[in-house]
Amino acid sequence: MTTAGQLRHKVTIQKLGDGESEWGEPIKDQWVDVCSPWADIRQPSGLSAIKADAQVSIVRTSIRIRFRNDVKPGMRVVHGERIYNVKAGPLAVDGKRVFIDLVCEEVM
Description:
The chain is mostly beta strands. It has one domain (4-107): Bacteriophage SPP1 head-tail adaptor protein (Thrombin, subunit H), CATH 2.40.10.270. Helix content is 0%, strand content 67%. The protein is built from no helices and eight strands. The chain has an eight-stranded antiparallel sheet, with no helix packed on it. The two termini are 31 Å apart.
């Protein structure tokens, strides 16, 4: 059971969309903030592979936040300098609409 005290990481959830520059000019396909909830970040597993002659590490991560219905796969979660791509979810915890888990990957 998750408690509010376990949600100790402030994150920003972003979606790919249209925005504008500091001068008001439209910019296509940029990451736009959706919300900034508190989260519990868990890293249960990691995977290391070689892609195109470069070492790549993929860290699978579960991020738990309070229930929201506007978070979908294809979005990303930003925590400090770390970026997690939302791969699946949201999955309601215990079938209730209190917390959701986001299945994410961090590629390093």
